[in-house]
Amino acid sequence: MPRHYRRWPIRLGVTILIVLILLVAAALVVHAVQDTVSGGSGAISLSATQTRQAIDANLPALPQLINVVSGGFETSANLPGNVSVNQSFVPPLGAKKATGSEFISTPQVLPADVLNGYYEGRYSAYKASQLQEYFNGAYELDWCKDSKGALYQLSYVNLKSADVAGELNYLISKQGLIGYKAKTSASGTDSGGYLCQRGTIHIGSHKFYYEVQATDFSRIYRAQNLTTPAVYAVFSMADYNFYKKSSKLQ
Predict the structure, then answer these.
(1) Would you kindly state where each structural domain of the chain is located, as residue ranges?
(2) Closest CA to 159 of 224, 218, 95, 202
């Protein structure tokens, strides 16, 4: 057999190997591009300044919204941001004849599927890119009232922070508690792992109990691919001692 015929299978095998390598490389490039477009990297690209500015622009001071006589909110129709009402909200107090409502406010109007995802799974329903696009500067506000009294809660996420204590202090300042004759009764870490401060404030002649909490976002929610640190913060207040039976702070 001529020598060049003996080399042909070798050349064909090398060619096939090269083609396979090129196909694999192309697939990896396409996958990387798709990951980048869909937020596959899991990193929040916003700066800490951008997230703080968005929070500052939208987050309301809860004591200013409360109707101390009837319960509920005085100005729910004029809340900052684009506000949606959860029509399926069930008051969590557990008592009979409880009433209440829940609002989610975002910097932009949410598509219906994104909004439904929030109601079904909260922040766990999204990728990092979606959190950044739709929920930077968002907050949730709810209240419920039963025979014990009225309980109000405001919560949000700082998508570019690892400073839990700093976020707790920011929220205390943002709510303007000093202007409501605030008295701190306890501070520390609660049984759920939240950094926490409790106390009382007065709105006019009405006394309210408050609790400010902050923790690592990943302890509460499992965003699908989020790799950068974030902080989840909550401000709660009620016209009765709603944390009376809670564990002592450590």
Answers:
(1) 1-37, 48-238
(2) 218
